[in-house]
Amino acid sequence: MSDAAAPSPAPCPICGKPRAPQFRPFCSKRCADVDLNRWLKGVYAVPVTETDDEDGEKVEDQPGRDRP
Ligand SMILES: [Zn+2]
Predict the structure, then answer these.
(1) CA of 22 to the centre of ligand 1 (A)
(2) CA of 26 to the centre of ligand 1 (A)
(3) Rg of the chain in Å (alpha carbons)
(4) Ligand 1 center from residue 54 Cα (angstroms)
(5) Degrees (nearest 5) of the Cα angle 16, 45, 37?
């Protein structure tokens, strides 16, 4: 083998084009943004699971529980 002049690592995960060093691992800022948006959407798309630790429904003291 003698193609040491073309070290082509994995391509852009978004569009599959050769990645650009300054936008690793993407080929352009656009693809970087796409990935970022995906990531953000993924974060914000997470269904709101019980995170009501603020104030509100406080569990009434249940009878027969932690009582002497
Ligand atoms: Zn790309």
Answers:
(1) 12
(2) 5
(3) 25
(4) 42
(5) 35
CB of 68 closer than 8 Å to CB of 61: no
Q: Which residue has the tokens 């529980």?
A: 65
Nearest to residue 13, comparing CAs of 29, 36, 31?
Answer: 31
- Rounded CA-CA distance 20/35 in Å is 15
Is the CB of residue 9 less than 8 Å from the CB of residue 31?
no
Write out pLDDT tens, residues 49-61: 665 666 665 666 7
- Does the pLDDT value for residue 27 go beyond 70? yes
Look up residue 1 and give its amino acid. M
The alpha carbon of 39 and the centre of ligand 1 are apart by a number of angstroms equal to 16
